[in-house]
Amino acid sequence: LAGVAIALLYQWIGKSTERGNDLIMDEIHEPGGGVPARMAPLILISTVVTHLFGGSAGREGTAIQMGGSIASAAVRRLRLSAPDRRTLLMTGIAAGFGGVFGTPLAGAIFALEVIAVGRISHESLVPCLLASVVGDWSCHAWGVHHTDYHQVIATLPRIDWLLLAKVAVASVAFGLVSLMFAEMEHGVKRLFQRCIPWACLRPAAGGAIIIALV
After folding, report:
1. 20: closest CA among 57, 75, 74, 53?
2. How far apart are CA 69 and CA 20, in angstroms?
3. Fewest CB within 10 angstroms: 44, 57, 63, 174, which?
4. Which tens digit of pLDDT belongs to each residue from 19-30?
5. For residues 129 and 57, what is the distance between their CA atoms, to the nearest angstrom?
6. Which residues fall within 8 angstroms of residue 180, CB to CB, at 6 or more apart?
7. Helices 125-141 and 104-112 sit at what angle, rounded to 10 degrees?
8. Which residues, 6 or more positions from 201, have their beta carbon under 8 angstroms from its beta carbon?
9. Mean pLDDT across the chain
10. Alpha carbon of 123 to those of 89, 90, 171: distances in Å?
């Protein structure tokens, strides 16, 4: 029922925002009509409702869409050139990611690699890093705490080549599993679109399948 409510909400007032992260990525690659400002409150409400009703929703999509939406609203006000619009959208992503996860460096690198993995936009380096750090500081200023992971700092051991080989094989396996997951997710989405034309019924069907499996 919560999924149906979210789908109806997007259908009524957020039709242009339902593409989510893809819309922001497209705007960074090829600036066009911009990202609607209403994406920020919509993704916040839908994420909180999803969590409250037992749904599976990560924080990274929420961070990207809220940061990108707020940055896009600033872009329209400032009437910037295409390269500056791209940079500001990237800083919005960096600020959102750094604030939500409390990892400003990772947030900056994530935003910088949006254009192409492995190719960093050097002109956006300082703005993204500053935005990510300020986003993190802002969360701390509001008393928001992130999960602390216990770290054991010890002297570096000698290199274990067998362990290194195992890690390399495991890394390839993890990459293949993530690729398979992404492809299956797209496949299930296409299947649902084909079998259930009315978008609002798809979350209900998914929820019913999960309940049946449990």
Report:
1. 57
2. 10
3. 174
4. 666 777 766 766
5. 26
6. none
7. 140
8. 4
9. 83
10. 13, 11, 31
